[in-house]
Design brief:
The complex is a heterodimer of chains A (173) and B (186).
Chain A: H1 2-17, H2 26-36, H3 42-54, H4 62-97, H5 105-133, H6 137-152, H7 157-169
Helix pairs in contact in A: 1-4, 3-5, 6-7
Chain B: H1 10-23, H2 29-39, H3 45-57, H4 62-105, H5 109-135, H6 141-156, H7 161-185
Chain lengths: 173, 186
């Protein structure tokens, strides 16, 4: 019970720190569950992230998997509700006032001001996940090829994930 | 144009977001746009952009924030609950089932291999996302500097995110405000 409470309070705090979406929290969640509490290895963290990416639905589901890994089904529900709760309450109230801020100069300033931070955080997430996921040169090559294809083409990401899984299945990664 | 928009019933609201949650792979935003604006016509282009901006400016998962705002707009608190429940229900069940399979079979060498490959590709997708976002960054030295500072403090030095945000977010917003003001006066 104590574990669930501390999971909930931590993810509720994360909820309010997720500037630019759930993906930006990867470094902070990694710090919390891998580096500080040793609830899983970096490799396991990368696997959970990969499973969440391969599943349909919002990216934020990686949070449910982390909760599940730490404390089972109750953990999954705890982290998911913690992660979505506070920001959802905030959205509900701000949405009702939103129209009023339409012409406020601060609105554009906040949008522009937060964008570089989001980019920095997503880059940090990408670096951390790459280091955790790629153990050999072949992994780095696959990672770079996926990045390049996803960046430069309009290929459905599911093909890249599926291709990666098949290469791995054959023991090449 | 407004007259052609459709106000969903509660049931339609739930089912609509249920569909969005089930069919989006690697992020659901493009799909949400197609369904909400083009197919079901609950929102026009302008309203969608407006609500997307709201979802992005507020902390938390963007699509969840957006579904709360859209649900609330049509059916108040109940609408917000229905939209977010519709969005999350099926993906949550699926992802947890996948995790249980993973737990059960992770010791098998083939499964481990497949997961290594999957993880490398998934990391690559995240890199691509960072590259795409980097391309769209404001062409201003300060924006680059703040992005780099965030990357280094959080990603490399591993400082706590809360600390970094409490310092950098207000600074970055104030600087952006000054840039916008300078542009208006020019």
């Amino acid at each position: 019970m104590m574990l669930l409470l501390s999971l909930f309070s931590r993810f509720a705090l994360f909820s309010l720190m997720a500037v630019g979406g759930g993906i930006t929290l990867i470094p902070e969640m990694h710090l919390y569950v891998v580096e500080n509490h040793h609830w899983m290895s970096g490799q396991e963290f990368a696997s959970l992230f990969a499973i969440a990416q391969a599943a349909p639905g919002p990216n934020v589901l990686v949070v449910s998997l982390i909760g599940w890994k730490v404390a089972g089904l109750a953990g999954a529900l705890t982290t998911t509700v913690g992660m979505c709760g506070p920001s959802s309450v905030l959205s509900y109230y701000v949405a009702r006032l939103w129209a009023r801020f339409h012409d406020s100069p601060w609105r554009r300033a906040i949008e522009r001001g937060l964008a570089p931070l989001t980019i920095g955080l997503v880059s940090g997430s990408a670096m951390l996940m790459s280091v955790a996921a790629n153990q050999h040169v072949s992994g780095w090559l696959l990672c770079a090829a996926s990045a390049l294809l996803a960046w430069r083409t309009r290929l459905n990401p599911l093909w890249l994930l599926g291709g990666g899984a098949v290469l791995g299945l054959m023991g090449w990664i | 144009m407004k007259s052609t928009l459709i106000i969903p019933t509660r049931r339609q609201l739930f089912m609509g977001f249920f569909g969005i949650g089930l069919s989006g792979f690697g992020g659901v935003l493009p799909l949400a746009h197609r369904m909400l604006v083009q197919q079901r016509r609950w929102l026009d282009e302008e309203e969608f952009t407006e609500l997307l901006g709201l979802g992005q400016i507020l902390p938390g998962p963007n699509i969840v924030n957006m579904s709360i705002a859209i649900g609330a707009r049509f059916h108040g608190v109940a609408g917000a609950w229905l939209a977010v429940a519709g969005l999350m229900l099926a993906p949550l069940v699926i992802v947890l089932s996948m995790a249980m399979l993973y737990d059960h079979y992770q010791a098998l060498p083939h499964v481990q291999g497949a997961l290594h490959g999957l993880a490398s590709s998934a990391a690559g997708l995240l890199l691509a996302m960072a590259l795409r976002m980097g391309q769209k960054i404001e062409r201003h030295l300060l924006a680059w500097l703040l992005a780099a500072l965030t990357f280094i403090t959080v990603g490399v030095l591993r400082w706590p995110l809360l600390l970094v945000l409490l310092v950098l977010a207000p600074v970055s917003v104030l600087l952006a405000r000054r840039r916008l003001q300078a542009r208006e006066q020019a």
